Task: structure prediction
Amino acid sequence: MSNIAIQWFAAALPIIILLFLLLRCKWGGDEAASGGLFISILIGYLVFGGEMDMIALAVAKGMWYSIAIIMVVFSALFIYEVSQESGAFVVIRKGVQTFTPDKVLQVLAVGWIFVGFLQGITGFGVPVVVCTPLLIGMGVRPITAVLITLLGEAWGNTFGTLGIAWDGLVSQVDLSDPLVMKRTIIWATGMLGVVNLIAGLFIAGLAGGYKGVKRNAVTVIGLALLQGFGQMWLALLNPMLSNFVVVSISLGLIFLIGKLPYYRQSVELHDPVEERRKENTCVNNMSIGQAFIPYVFLVVIVVVVLLNSTIKSLFGQWKISLPFAGKTTLLGFATHDYVAYAPLVPLLNSGFFLLIAAIISYYTYQSFGFIQAGGLERITINSLNKTIPSAIAVIGLIAMSKVMDETGQTTVLAQGVVAVTGGTYPILSPFIGLLGTFMTSSNLSSNILFSGFQQQVGMMLHVDKAQLLAVQTVGASIGSIIAPSKVLLGTTAAGILGKEGDVIHKFLFGAMLLCGIFGLIIFVSYKFGW
Amino acid sequence: MKVQQRMDFLPIFIFMAFPVLYNGGQSSNSLCSIVGIIVLFLGMSGPLIKRIIGKERLHKKTTRNHIYLFKKDK
Result:
């Protein structure tokens, strides 16, 4: 075997080990990430000739970059815990159940629009955990409820959570050319719009069967077009807010749609569960408006800070950064010398907005008497307990991707894939994104792991990198439907632990087919030079 | 239970690893870099150790049940 082939297989090993640990050994992301990082360090040192100081700096860069993401994870969980502690989620569920007698529209409102709304703000599996029990409470079968929430949150993975996965992609590649940035956004949002439309129709079908699709087709298509084109237009102006704004508008619209005479007649579910779960009906006297307080505060804070250039520049003044020295491996792969590497702007971080909204909401709920004694302690402990495993996974995966990138493993991997697939690579490109999310259960982690790789392949094959980067993040979004850890969240919330295989099996073919179609579109576009 | 509770404090080592890794890398000090990597892995090892302990417990419990059933059969 030639040296190049050995290097290629060695470079692929960290990803293979990560996959093996996740899929075969059924390890969690927090456990498998350590294994992947360890192998990448070993390969970087033994095969690619990276000195320990170079590897240490790569790991430190990964850790540095993780801080911004961990801030968002913690704050997203904190806002969720505040809503949970105050009983706001029970009120939201009851509000949704009473706004229309059409149960299929109720399912669309919760499983598609409200899931999308939660994905727009929080992400990290929160929509799946929150909405699966809500759907079961409405009479949906547990496994169907898991399928619906996974479908509903998929399209919002890239620009949801205030655009964190998009930021992850941008941080790994060179999108300084405004035209390339614009093309990437248009391709990505266009394909995500298609994913959303398909998801909406599927959810209508799962809830109401063929009749459900037929009856709600106009509503679903109308809302999907609004969300798709709305996100495209807004992402060109502000990627961070694009998803959040359209899902907030959609949430308001679905309530108005429910008031239409067309939706005032009672419609039952296609395959309802006979016995409903016993649920806690002990609700405080919170109104539906009060239940949405955390999200209203979030909207206000984000809009005020980001759309006001004076406040934005004031908040943006406080930056924290570190210098990083350039290093070279024995094989000649070199890294840049940075005076200020990836500056952290804490006051403009999505996590800061989420945390402020959560804190204000907490004190508001407390003043109304919705928070019991010891609530803050419970909220903080629960948020911290849930953040730690995610933080370990994020640090391990980002450090692994940095070690692979800086010691030349990603470059060699990309060169090998290009040599084998040649001009047909664009067909495969969405599957790389899907693989990343399948491995890590995170669109963000997939983008961090593979965006640099896609960019390098694009440069080698002279394929428009905008298309490859767009299809990377779209493939990653689709991958979230079948990501084991996310599926596990759903089955846990639905009380059907152990049925993960059934859920993945139901969507595996569809997810692969959709990726194949997008890959073909990119391939045709590459061949015809669109 | 005590061992599991101790595991919860391991992530603190992740915080400690960063300055060691950074200084090791910036000052081209291989020893410091290796120490940083070891400390980081120590910090990240909590979930894995919990899994191993959990498996051992399950194994012990299963073995105890088998012995009990075996004695009962006799």
Observations:
- Chain B has a mean pLDDT of 80.
